[in-house]
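Reminder: ligand-aware prediction takes two inputs, not one.
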Amino acid sequence: MKITHTITTSTGDAIPAIDNSVWRQSIERIEANRRSHRIGYHDSEECMMCGRKMSRKAHENARHVHMTIDGDLVPMAAEVGSLSQGWFPVGSECAKRLPKGFAEKPWVG
Ligand SMILES: [Zn+2]
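Here is what comes back for the chain with zinc ion:
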């Protein structure tokens, strides 16, 4: 998966980003994965990218992605201020598909 564009922050920094339409699998595919793993729509222990369930252990050790309020992905450590929607867990297979720095373990402490 490749960078699709850059986002300009309020401080003028250009942040590399991956568009929502590129990184997110189709809603149909995510729903199918959710059904096959028998989990509810609001279960938080699932991969943000594909909807597959993650074990508690995998979830605790998961890499995370950093999403903007527009649903695009930016590097984990990018400072995007009010454009940030937060950090979300992804499974190891999905994490492998992202460029370096886009799926990392959250900071500890
Ligand atoms: Zn996934």
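The chain has one domain: 5-96. The pocket of zinc ion is lined by residues 47, 49-50, 52, 90-91, 93-94 (CB under 6 Å). We will return to this case in the review session.
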